[in-house]
Amino acid sequence: MAAPRSPDTSLDSSKAFQLGYQPLSLREELEQLKNKI
Prior knowledge:
EC 1.1.1.133; dTDP-4-dehydrorhamnose reductase; oxidoreductase
């Protein structure tokens, strides 16, 4: 039996950006990961 889900399960991240989310570029993310290992 599946668990109930929210009617909107889209991958739209516009609300996160409106709230101030500022992700790093892919290059910056990879550089940070590289520096952790």
